[in-house]
Write a structure and sequence with these properties.
303 residues; alpha/beta; 60s Ribosomal Protein L30, Chain: A; elongated; disordered N terminus
Length: 303
C-alpha cells in the first residue's frame, strides 16, 4: 500500500510539473490563451459535467472533440462557450487557431494533454488535442420546412446505438435534408459517440427529439408530406417507387424496425433488394441507400 500511495503522489507531482511547464509557454502567444489550474479548475468541472446527459439536456450544450471539429465549428458559425487546447508532443498549440478563436470572442484555455483526457473522461488516452463546449441551438417542430418546399426529412425511431444516431445525422446532412427527427427514446445526438460519428454534421443539421412522434408525423402528413418506410415485404422496390416531392423517410430500431404505431402511419412501403444470404441491413446502411435513391430521382427531374 505504501508503494501505491507513493506512486500516486509521484504521478501527481509529474502532472503538476507538466502543467507548470505548459503554463510557462502561454506567454509566447500573441492572443489570449487562459491557463487551467488543474482538475479543480471551475472550467474543468464545467466541461466534465457535460459528460452527463442530464446536464447536456438542461444546459443545451455538449462537448466537441478534436482540432478538426473545432475548425468545423468555426466554419459553421457554431456558438462555442470555451475551447480547451492541449500542447501534445510534436503538436504544439496552433497559434493561428488561438487567434481566430480570439477574433470570435471564444475563450481559449491552455492545458496539458493529460488534463484534457480527464475532461473527456474515457479512462484511456486519445489523439485529441482540442475540446470545445458548444451550444446547441434550439429547434422546434414549427421550424420544419413546409411541404411546399418539396424537401426530404429523415426520421429515426427507437434507435439503440448512439453511433448509428451520429451516422444518421451525417447521412441526413450529406443528402441536404433540412432536419433529422428522432423519437424521444433514441440516444442523445449530443453524446460523445454520436457527436464523433457525425464527424461534424451535428454542427450543421438541426436535430429534433419528439416525445410524441406518431402524432407529429400525422401532422406532417396533413401538411403534405408523404411518409415512406422500408419493408422486405413491400410490393415495390425503392427503384420503382416515386421518392420525389416532400417525403419523410422513416427508419426504425436496429433489431425490430419500426414500432406498430409508426408502421401504421406510413403512406408508402418500399423494399431494398437483398440478393445474397443477408436478410437485413444496418439501419445506417439502409438509410443511406434510400436517401440517395431519393436524391438521384430528384436530380433526374431537374435535368
Amino acid at each position: 500500500m505504501r508503494r501505491s500511495r507513493k506512486s500516486k503522489v509521484e504521478s501527481q507531482k509529474s502532472e503538476a510539473a507538466t502543467d507548470d511547464s505548459f503554463d510557462s509557454r502561454l506567454s509566447t502567444f500573441d492572443f489570449r490563451l487562459n491557463p487551467v489550474q488543474g482538475v479543480k479548475d471551475p472550467m474543468v468541472k464545467e466541461a466534465q459535467a457535460l459528460n452527463r446527459p442530464e446536464v447536456r439536456a438542461a444546459e443545451g450544450r455538449y462537448l466537441l472533440e478534436g482540432e478538426e471539429m473545432v475548425e468545423q465549428a468555426l466554419r459553421a458559425g457554431a456558438a462555442m462557450d470555451a475551447v480547451f487546447l492541449a500542447d501534445a508532443p510534436g503538436h504544439p498549440v496552433p497559434a493561428d487557431l488561438v487567434r481566430r478563436l480570439s477574433e470570435r470572442d471564444v475563450a481559449a484555455y491552455g492545458l496539458s494533454q493529460g488534463l484534457l483526457f480527464k475532461i473527456i473522461g474515457t479512462g484511456y488516452e486519445t489523439s485529441a488535442t482540442a475540446l470545445a463546449i458548444v451550444r446547441r441551438p434550439p429547434f422546434s417542430e414549427e421550424e420544419l420546412p413546409p411541404a411546399s418546399e418539396g424537401l426530404m426529412l429523415v426520421v429515426g425511431e427507437r434507435l439503440q446505438d448512439p453511433r448509428n444516431v451520429g451516422v444518421l445525422v451525417r447521412t441526413a446532412d450529406a443528402v441536404g435534408a433540412p432536419a433529422l427527427i428522432l423519437s424521444a427514446d433514441s440516444p442523445d445526438p449530443t453524446s460523445r459517440p454520436a457527436v464523433r460519428s457525425s464527424t461534424g454534421s451535428i454542427l450543421r443539421l438541426p436535430v429534433l427529439q419528439s416525445p410524441g412522434l406518431p402524432d407529429m408525423l400525422e401532422r406532417l402528413r396533413q401538411g403534405g408530406y408523404k411518409l415512406v418506410a422500408t419493408s422486405a415485404a413491400a410490393p415495390q422496390t425503392l427503384w420503382d417507387a416515386d421518392l420525389t416531392g416532400p417525403c419523410a423517410f422513416l427508419f426504425g430500431n436496429e433489431t425490430t424496425g419500426l414500432s406498430p404505431a409508426l408502421r401504421e402511419t406510413a403512406d408508402l412501403y418500399v423494399s431494398i433488394p437483398l440478393l445474397g444470404g443477408a436478410h437485413s441491413l444496418n439501419v445506417t446502411v439502409a438509410s443511406g441507400i434510400v436517401l440517395y435513391e431519393s436524391l438521384r430521382q430528384r436530380s433526374s427531374k431537374l435535368e
